[in-house]
Design goal:
It is a single chain. This protein has 365 residues and is an alpha/beta fold. The protein has two domains: 31-149 and 293-349, Rossmann fold (3-Layer(aba) Sandwich); 154-290, Response regulator (Rossmann fold, 3-Layer(aba) Sandwich). Helices cover 39% and strands 18% of the residues. It has ten helices and 16 strands. The protein has helices spanning 2-23, 61-77, 91-103, 120-128, 154-166, 188-204, 220-233, 247-257, 273-281, 293-308; strands at 31-32, 50-54, 80-83, 108-111, 132-136, 147-150, 176-182, 208-215, 239-242, 266-269, 288-290, 318-321, 325-328, 330-331, 345-348, 353-355. A seven-stranded mixed beta sheet has the order 3-2-4-5-6-15-14, with helices on both faces. Strand 7 (176-182), helix 6 (188-204) and strand 8 (208-215) form a beta-alpha-beta unit. Helix 3 (91-103) packs parallel to helix 4 and helix 7 (220-233) packs across helix 8. The longest helix has 22 residues, at 2-23. The protein is elongated, with a radius of gyration of 25 Å. It starts with a helix and ends in a 10-residue tail after the last strand. The relative contact order is 0.15. Mean pLDDT is 91; it is low at 1-31 and 36-42.
């Protein structure tokens, strides 16, 4: 009888060990979904995680819309997002904000950078402190972040800018005078689009002449002054392409101030529909483009939160993101980068939008 009791005890121990092992078995598949805010494998609960969401500058419709998406995602999942930026988009301001995020104990940052390499040391300090780094809208050196939430490759967006202008011309193959107008000669995203656009123009529209390239530094008043100066300095100008959310509305306002419409000069580029709707409705412009920046903000903070929970993210992985769907981590080479690493990649938004009078009222951002 005693021998039987010992066997029962041993059997119970073995059964308990088996059940514990089964409970701790994880699925190592490529598709990952961690939207429940924490799990039994040691990941932090959502409510314990803070992501600092950093724009190039505050007070701009594009970045405020990105923050709206970020806050909505945080509220749905249960983590915290702190929107932290400055009215002026400068390297010094962003370095200070990154340092503040580190010293305050933030778990991750999601930043739209004003520079391709000026934040390297601040980002390295953040990484050394265990802060996860994600970029959105405008990237940094890919060695200093895990994922870039990219609105489109230079090839996609550069060609889109040119095509939006060309489709308004009576004969895009004829001689055309074209101006570029955007924020800065150093901002990485816009310059990559323009660089490819100029290659695309040389191949497809060799009769176009780029007569000037102007920069508004993200300043509304300065951009308006430059817009008016472009019109005054180039009376035979056919088109202005402004891939910047401050420069484009300023350029349209400058044309309106001069009494010009889309019949007189083509103005197109990238900006939010809310900032450009009045100019479409009054005929100052016929089209402009963008992507859903609310989705971009939401995706950026979700990926930052996902990493802060202790999850790895490698090139080739897919992640199921609430309200957005499955996204894939692409290699850095899709952006033309030389730097390749298993834990550094790019997530490209699935679509971009051309806004006209027929669809502008369908969007609110």
């Amino acid at each position: 009888m005693r021998k039987f009791n010992i066997l029962k005890t041993l059997f119970g121990i073995l059964l308990l060990v088996f059940l514990l092992a089964a409970c701790n078995t994880n699925d190592d598949g490529a598709t990952k979904d961690n939207s429940d805010g924490g799990d039994s494998s040691g990941n932090e609960a959502a409510s314990d995680i803070e992501v600092v969401f950093i724009p190039k500058m505050t007070g701009n419709a594009f970045f405020e819309s990105g923050n709206n998406g970020a806050q909505a995602m945080a509220e749905e999942i249960g983590f915290k997002v702190k929107y932290d930026g400055a009215p002026e988009g400068t390297v010094a301001n962003q370095v200070q904000i990154i340092n503040s995020a580190v010293s305050s104990g933030a778990d991750a940052i999601a930043i739209s950078s004003v520079t391709s390499d000026g934040l390297n040391q601040a980002l390295q300090n953040a990484l050394d402190a265990g802060v996860k780094v994600v970029t959105w809208d405008s990237d940094v050196d890919p060695e200093y972040r895990t994922a870039y939430i990219n609105q489109g490759t230079p090839e996609i967006l550069g060609a889109m800018l040119v095509d939006m202008a060309a489709e308004q011309m009576d004969d895009p193959n004829a001689e055309q005078q074209v101006a570029w107008f955007y924020s800065s000669p150093t901002v990485p995203d816009q310059n990559s689009w323009v660089d490819y656009a100029e290659t695309y123009i040389a191949e497809k529209y060799p009769n176009w002449e780029i007569v000037t390239k102007q920069f508004g530094e993200g300043d509304e008043q300065l951009s308006l002054q430059i817009g008016e100066s472009i019109i005054d300095s180039y009376p035979d100008l056919d088109a202005v392409i402004a891939p910047d959310s401050t420069a484009l509305p300023a350029m349209a306002q400058a044309a309106e101030n001069k009494g010009l419409t889309a019949e007189d000069i083509i103005i197109t580029g990238f900006a939010s529909p809310n900032s450009m709707r009045q100019f479409i409705e009054n005929g100052t412009i016929l089209n402009h483009g963008l992507w859903d920046v609310t989705d971009q903000g939401a995706l950026a903070v979700y990926i930052a939160y996902y990493l802060a929970q202790g999850n790895e993210l490698k090139v080739g992985d897919t992640v199921d993101v609430p309200n957005i769907g499955e996204v894939t981590v692409e290699p850095n080479s899709v952006q033309g980068y030389d730097y390749e690493a298993e834990d550094s990649g790019i997530i490209v938004l699935p679509e971009r939008i051309v806004f006209t009078k027929h669809n502008t009222n369908d969007f609110d951002f």
